[in-house]
Amino acid sequence: MDQRREAQANEINGSRSNENDSVSSKGPALRLYPCVEKKAEKYEDLEEELEFSPHLYSALERHLPTSVLSSSRDNKVQYMTDILLRYSPRSDRSRLQKHGEYRQKIISNYQPLHRVLYTMHAADFFVPSFIKAISENTEESFRKIMSEASPGVFTFEMLQPRFCEMMLAEVQNFEKWVRETKFRIMRPNTMNKFGSVLDDFGLQNMLQKFMEDFIRPISRVFFTEVGGSTLDGHHGFVVEYGTDRDIDLGFHVDDAEVTLNVCLGKQFTGGELFFRGVRCEKHVNSDTQPEEIFDYAHIAGRAILHCGRHRHGARATTSGQRINLLIWCRRY
Ligand SMILES: [Fe+2]
Questions:
Q1: How far away, in angstroms, is 6 Cα from ligand 1 center?
Q2: Which of 18, 33, 312, 323 is the most exposed place for a label (fewest CB within 10 A)?
Q3: How many whole angstroms from 114 Cα to the centroid of ligand 1?
Q4: CA 315–ligand 1 middle distance (angstroms)
């Protein structure tokens, strides 16, 4: 997946003409350097009509030629759609379209339990120490609340107990709806048989804001090597572990630049995360150095933040049920 995204980005780069702001005769072009004077528009309100993710449009906008950038919103959307369609393989397009229809089907039928979760209410979601650190927005303010028990793995108090409770209840409510309607849902990734994609039942915009305003500022400081300041997309989901759910999770790296993992509850034993150092794609199975060994026991509401390529896994949850919120932060 990472490779595909990388390849796609290169293809678009490769298509640009040498001039920074020209339209090629072969079709629409992009400027090499983004326009820094202009803030990109949001396109979430057009989500149902757009062929691609609204975040992709926001990310692309500042690369538009000046004449297009200053034109109407409709014109910009059309221009960007033309570009994206040209560089999106046919199989990708139909996959995106199918996924859009799938999501729409869920959103138009599922009745949320806690509507308050569907828009960002920072003061209700996060603990005050976390909000203070984010508003100060300095390395010092982040270090004050974070513990870096192993290089590149940060833990800190993040979510309010009430938020965790509501999110657990919302997920339970969604799963009840899935069971009752026999709706066939897609699981969060290839490794988890249980769990739900939060973005698929309406939480996408809230989680995008979560990523942009509350994870990206920290990543800008601690994950520069993976483009922490330019994260622009996410995959938000919950995973469920227990003796009657997924039990453990093998050693792996995530399909993300930066991963946020927060335990929402409930009561459980086991389920510790184990970390074994960051590796590039070529050396993902190389030996672990003693200083890279780090084990972490989950505490509800406490976040763990690491680079997606930091090798890790989860030990067996030996009793009870453990539900974790995951936000895979990406740079498209
Ligand atoms: Fe993972």
A1: 20
A2: 18
A3: 27
A4: 12
Q: Rounded mean pLDDT of the chain?
A: 87
Which residue, 74, 87, 69, is CA-closest to 26?
A: 87
Residue 112 alpha carbon to ligand 1 centre in Å: 27
Per residue in 86-119, pLDDT tens? 877 777 778 888 888 999 999 999 999 999 999 9
Q: Which of 205, 211, 207 is nearest to 231 (CA)?
A: 211
Give me ligand 1 centre to Cα 251, in Å: 8
CA 46 – ligand 1 centroid, Å:
32
What span, in angstroms and rounded, lies between the C-alpha atoms of 65 and 35?
9
Query: Which pLDDT value is given to residue 1?
Result: 37
Ligand 1: centre distance to CA 2 (Å): 14
Q: State residue 302 phi and psi, 5-degree precision.
A: -90, 130
Exposed e or buried b per residue across 94-107, where buried means at least 16 C-beta atoms within 10 angstroms of its C-beta: eebeeebeebeebe
CA 108–ligand 1 middle distance (angstroms): 31
Tell me the C-alpha to C-alpha distance, in Å, between residue 88 and each of 19, 95, 193, 233.
23, 11, 29, 17
pTM of the model: 0.76
Helix (H) or strand (E) holding 323: strand 317-330
More confident residue, 288 or 303: 303
pLDDT tens digits along 243-284: 888 888 888 999 999 999 999 989 999 999 999 999 988 888
